[in-house]
Amino acid sequence: MNERRTLAIGTRGSALALAQARWVGEWLEARGRATRVEVIRTRGDVPPDEPLPAEGVGLFTSALQEALGSGRVDLVVHSLKDLPLLPSPGLTLAAVPVRADPRDAWVGRPPGRLVRVGTSSPRRRALLGALYPEVTPVPLRGNLDTRLGRVQSGAVDAVVVAQAGLSRLGHKSAALMLLDPDRFVPAPAQGALGVEVRTEDDDARLAVADLDDETTRRCALAERSVLAGLGGGCQLPMGAHARAAGEGYVLTAFHAPAGLTPRWARREGKDPAELAALVTAALGGR
Q1: Do residue 92 and residue 120 come from a single domain?
Q2: Is residue 185 included in any domain, yes or no?
Q3: What is the DSSP string of 114-177?
Q4: Is 118 found in the same domain as 236?
Q5: In this structure, what CATH number is given to the domain that contains residue 234?
Q6: Alpha-carbon span 197 to 96, nearest angstrom
Q7: Domain co-membership, 29 together with 94
Q8: Domain range for residue 266?
Q9: Could you tell me the sign of the dihedral formed by the alpha carbons of 236, 163, 117, 252, in that order?
Q10: pLDDT (mean) for 216-221
Q11: Distance CA 88, CA 68 (A)
């Protein structure tokens, strides 16, 4: 195999996805590898005024994985929170880079009566209801620029979005406030990227090996384990956030089961995987 081949990086076409893919490409090029970015349309890439497909698993990732498996591209860059919980045969999660800020950001008018907060996330809607009952959540879908534009136009008074996305698109200062991840718990793996390669492609795997951050990987996979234990799915109103603390880790999770009072659970210990099991059990999962 030609170890110096140009590595084709597959990505969605949104501004955020392109920024993430280009960041990986720049990292590789700084280490002497030529790259090119190839945009791949996914099932989730529909206009914000159109409904998403009913089957939500792999909406933003399956087309990328198919392109990778077929050899059309050599690696793909995902927002790790979008990646299905079950691994795809023949593909390997080769790198989970150091995570960006995992917190949610409040953009727009501060919380208060008559404040309309745009979000279609079941997790964010449940957390708003539990922590900011005075505000009114209203449905709002679309890429980050679309949602920020709705605030600027007055269609909504505020939005809650990932601070990592704001930072990656140069909007870091847009946040009025950053929400406490121990209360307004982020989505599992929020702020983390996942770089997949074909399992047999040693060249691509080794090219990104040093991009992997063990702490981020362990925390993100523990968070995703809680999601799996609570039933999985992007429409589940839950969050999970793990972080290194001293010589161990802290994992906090939130779940709002239908018809029941929202619950939080927090555990500390040495092994994030063990903490995930304890937190899942505390929230009534398996």
Answers
A1: no
A2: no
A3: T-EEE---HHHHHHHHHH-TTSEEE---S-HHHHHHHHHHTSSSEEEEEHHHHHHTT-GGG-SE
A4: no
A5: 3.30.160.40
A6: 12
A7: yes
A8: 223-282
A9: positive
A10: 98
A11: 11
Q: Which residues of 129-149 are buried (b: 16+ CB within 10 A; e: fewer)?
A: ebebeebebbebbbbbeebbe
H-type alpha helices, the chain? 15-29, 62-70, 122-131, 144-153, 163-168, 202-207, 214-229, 272-282
Structural domains in the chain (count): 3
Q: Tell me: the pLDDT tens digits for 68-95?
A: 999 999 999 999 998 999 889 999 999 9
Can you tell me the mean pLDDT for 58-65? 84
Q: How would residue 44 be classed by pLDDT, with cut points 50, 70 and 90?
A: low
Residues identified as active-site:
82
Which amino acid appears at position 8 of this protein? Answer: A
Pairing mode, if any, of strands 263-269 and 248-255?
antiparallel
Confidence at residue 3, expressed as pLDDT on a 0 to 100 scale: 53
